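G., the chain you wanted modeled:
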Amino acid sequence: MRLGAIWRVWFPLVAGGWSLWWVFASDMGLRGPRRWAGLALAVIGLAGVIVARYTLGRSFSVTPQARTLVTTGIYSRIRNPIYVSAEVFLIGIAIMLWNPVPLLLALVVLPIQIWRARSEARVLEEKFGEEYREYCRRTWF
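Predicted structure as tokens:
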């Protein structure tokens, strides 16, 4: 297995799965349906991050780069599924813990994610032009 695949897929899966188990099994927060609802949201968010990173493959980068225009899989509906999924993950954790701190973290991270998405959009539009603009018209965020 390539080192890139380990970092893109397996590391987030193991780290995120372990974090979810640790939070869910802890004595923090409330018990009952809210905790299960939070777990469901957090799992959906984690799955979204992993699927998006897998779909990007070698196009994934920390800094904005325009290697290829990925428009398949989850990217056929959402332009920035990693950012959206990370927010869903944090909201799920906040609900599980019934604590405003993760929710505040999600609110602090949100403008950073929007700024990053706009930076990436500029780079992609510069390289792919009309093809990227058409992609934007048929996708969300």
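The two ends are 32 Å apart (CA to CA).

Shout if anything looks off.
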